[in-house]
Every structure is written in structure tokens, then in C-alpha cells.
Amino acid sequence: MKTVAEKGDEPLSQEERNLLSVAYKNVVGARRSSWRVIESIGNKTDEKDTQKKDIVNEYKEKIEKELEETCTEVLSLLDDHLITKINLKIRETIPLNDANGEKNKAMENAVESKVFYLKMKGDYYRYLAEVHTDEKKITDVKNSEEAYKEALAITSDGVKVNKAKSEDGELQENTLGALQPTHPIRLGLALNFSVFYYEIQDKKDHACALAKKAFDEAIAELDTLNEDSYKDSTLIMQLLRDNLTLWTSEDCPDDQDEN
Q1: For residue 160, what is the enclosing H or E element?
Q2: Of 126, 152, 170, 225, which one is least surrounded by beta carbons within 10 A?
Q3: For residue 166, what are the CA distances in angstroms to 169, 177, 219?
Q4: If we measure between CA atoms, which residue out of 71, 62, 32 comes closest to residue 254?
């Protein structure tokens, strides 16, 4: 999937995009789980047991290195290839409407892909922030939040695109790409961004407000759900509700993100 993402000038199809996401999610997910287990063992190990402490720390560093390498690879793919190709596609002066007056699907798909990739960027900087400390963590948190915020703005406001020149020779700027509140990508973004606020920045009020807003807006427009996205959308809505329940209780176990 890395090779597929790097080759060609055209953006990935929806199927290729999903395969890329799942491939890296499985690789990183295994190491995130391992890191949490070894971190827990280290916290429970007696400081006097230096031999065990050394073994735990050595293995923890090994996991962190693998996690960092994979996340860095994904982020490089996103910045150097995937997001770059999408930005070029969006900047093309493709008519916003087709011959039948319907919205241009190629442009819509390009904007949807940009949200998907920005969300992915926010996720992988978040994974790095989970294991990094000091200056590295500060940078990861900043980059993650910026990516999430840019994606969130697009889902609600769309992006500015140029239509063909008008009769007086001026380019007409139009907005395209806002996603429905029930769209699974928009819901998944809200879910993961809220987890970022809760777990990484310890901004519990921000997390709850974001998750509640996304859930309430989706509930209000349930009738817009189509058969293709019904299962994905309702599953993410359930995760949003579950997290809200956990976050508003006194004893909160691990939060859930789209993984």
C-alpha cells in the first residue's frame, strides 16, 4: 500500500484509501497495545528489581522505535504524496457541476479524501504523542491538533475552489465539500479529535462538548443516512455515546477511538 500511495499522479480511489488506512492501522495498533502493556508492567515493577526494570525499559524502547518508524512513514506519505495530490486535484478548474447540473463527484471525492487524510495525520501524530515526552511530545500535540482542526473546519464549511472564468474574465470562488453530520468520516473525525482532547491534552470539557455536538447533529439528521454508510455511521455514533457516558462518570476505563 505504501508503493501504491507513492506511485502515479492521481489520488487514491476510495477502496485504495481504505486499504491503506487499515494496513497501517493494524501495524500501529499492535504496537500501541504492546506499549500499553509494557508501560503497565513497568509501573507495577518494584524499583528495587533493577534487572526486571532494565528488561522492561529495553523492550519498551524497542516498541517505541518501531511505532515511531511506522508513524513517521505514514506522515511522510500523507504530506509528500497523498495530501499533495489531493490539493492539486482541488485546485484544478474543474466545473463544480456536471452536464446534468449535479455536483461534480470528482471534486466532492477529492475534498472528502482531504478530510480523511487530515484526520489520519491527526491520528498518527496523536499516536506519537502517546509515547513521546518533553519537546517531541509538544510538537506532536501541536501538529495533531492543527490537522484535526483543519479537517473539522472542512467538514462544516467546505473548501474554497475556483470555478471556470466568468464572462468578465474573473475567477468565481465557490465552496465545496462540507460533509453531512451523519457522514462516517465526519463522525470518525469528531470521535478521534475528542479522544485527543481527553487523553492527550486533558481537556475534558472540550472532549465532551465536541463529542456531544457531533452526536446530537447526527441524531437530528438520521433520515439522511443511506444504506451504504448506515452501519459505519451508527457504529461511530455508538462509540461517541459510549465515550460521553464514560467521561461523565467518576470511574473512566480506556476511551475508544475509531480503531
Answers
A1: strand 159-165
A2: 170
A3: 5, 22, 40
A4: 32
Question: Are 195 and 174 within 8 A, CB to CB?
Answer: no
Domain housing 195: 180-248
Sign, Cα dihedral of 211, 214, 217, 221: negative
77 falls within a domain: yes
Question: Quick count: other Cβ atoms within 10 Å of Cβ 99?
Answer: 6
pLDDT digits (tens, 9 = 90+) for 6-60: 988 888 999 999 999 999 999 999 999 999 999 999 989 888 889 999 999 999 9
Torsion-angle region of residue 94: left (phi > 0), alpha (psi -120 to 50) or beta? beta
Asked whether residue 175 is assigned to any structural domain, the reply reads no
Integer-rounded Cα radius of gyration of the chain: 21
Q: Who contacts 231 (Cβ-Cβ below 8 Å, separation ≥6)?
A: none
Query: Do 149 and 211 belong to one domain?
Result: no
Q: Which residue has the cell 460533509?
A: 179
